[in-house]
C-alpha cells in the first residue's frame, strides 16, 4: 500500500498486491506472476500481508483475510505462524491447475455468462502462449506394462500389448480430445 504523499527515497518499501477481491465478509489478496514473469518470494508475501493488516480501510474484514499466490511460486506457502494474525490462510496455485479447473469445473456450464467468462479466460491463455492442458502421452507408449493408467480418470482405454500386434482404435482418443478445446497450436507437434 502506498501512502498518499510517498517519499520517493523510500519507494522500495512500496508494496501493492495485484488483485484484491472484496466480498461482503472477506478479502482475498492475490499476487500474480505472468507466464513469462519472475518468481514469487516469501518476503514479498510478508510485506504485502503486513501492509494489508496495517491499512485501516480493511478493518471491517476482521480475521477473514486470505492470500493467494498465483504462478511461479516456491514449494511452500507462508505458515499460519508466518502470516499476520488476521489472515486465515495462504494458497499457492499455478496456471496449469487454474486452466484445468476452468476446463473441467461444472460451475461454468450453469449459465451463458459463466460460459462466456470461461471462454475469455481460455482466449487469454492462448494469447499468452499457455495452451489448454494436454494429457501426458508417455504412458500410452509403455507397451511392456500390463496396464496403461492415464491417471486422469476420464476415460479408460483397452490395454495395448505391442504396437505391431494391435492397431489402436483412434475413435476413443478423438472422442476424448473433443471436449478439451484444443487449438491448432496444440496439434503443431504433428507437423514435425
Q: List the total number of helices.
A: 4
- As a percent range, the share of helical residues equals 10-25%
Outline type: elongated
Q: By helix and strand content, what is the structural category? A: alpha/beta
Which oligomeric state applies?
Answer: single chain
- Overall number of strands: 4
β-strand percent reads: 5-15%
Write a structural description.
By secondary structure, the protein is α/β, with parallel strands linked by helices. The protein is 24% helix and 12% strand. The protein has four helices and four strands, in the order ββαββααα. The protein has a four-stranded mixed sheet with strand order 1-2-3-4. Strand 1 (19-22) and strand 2 form a beta hairpin. It is elongated, with a radius of gyration of 22 Å. The model is unreliable at 2-8 (pLDDT under 50).
What are the main properties of this structure?
24% helix; alpha/beta; 4 strands; disordered N terminus; four-stranded mixed β-sheet; elongated; 4 helices; 192 residues
Brief write-up:
This protein is 24% helix and 12% strand. It is of the alpha/beta class and 192 residues long.
Topology:
Layout: E1 19-22, E2 27-32, H1 42-54, E3 65-70, E4 87-93, H2 95-104, H3 112-127, H4 170-177
Parallel strand pairs: 2-3, 3-4
Antiparallel strand pairs: 1-2
Amino acid at each position: 500500500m502506498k501512502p498518499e504523499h510517498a517519499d520517493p527515497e523510500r519507494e522500495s518499501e512500496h508494496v501493492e498486491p495485484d488483485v484484491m477481491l472484496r466480498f461482503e465478509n472477506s478479502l482475498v489478496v492475490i499476487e500474480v506472476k505472468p507466464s513469462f514473469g519472475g518468481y514469487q518470494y516469501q518476503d514479498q508475501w510478508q510485506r504485502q500481508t503486513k501492509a494489508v493488516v496495517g491499512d485501516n480501510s480493511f478493518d471491517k474484514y476482521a480475521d477473514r483475510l486470505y492470500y493467494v499466490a498465483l504462478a511461479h511460486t516456491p514449494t511452500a506457502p507462508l505458515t499460519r505462524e508466518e502470516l499476520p494474525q488476521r489472515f486465515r490462510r495462504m494458497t499457492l496455485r499455478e496456471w496449469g491447475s487454474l486452466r484445468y479447473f476452468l476446463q473441467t469445473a461444472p460451475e461454468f456450464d450453469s449459465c451463458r455468462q459463466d460460459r462466456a467468462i470461461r471462454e475469455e479466460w481460455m482466449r487469454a491463455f492462448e494469447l499468452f502462449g499457455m495452451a489448454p492442458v494436454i494429457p501426458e502421452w508417455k504412458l500410452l507408449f509403455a507397451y511392456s506394462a500390463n496396464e496403461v493408467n492415464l491417471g486422469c480418470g476420464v476415460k479408460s482405454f483397452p490395454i495395448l500389448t505391442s504396437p505391431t500386434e494391435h492397431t489402436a482404435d483412434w475413435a476413443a482418443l478423438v472422442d476424448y480430445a473433443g471436449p478439451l478445446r484444443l487449438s491448432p497450436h496444440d496439434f503443431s507437434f504433428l507437423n514435425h
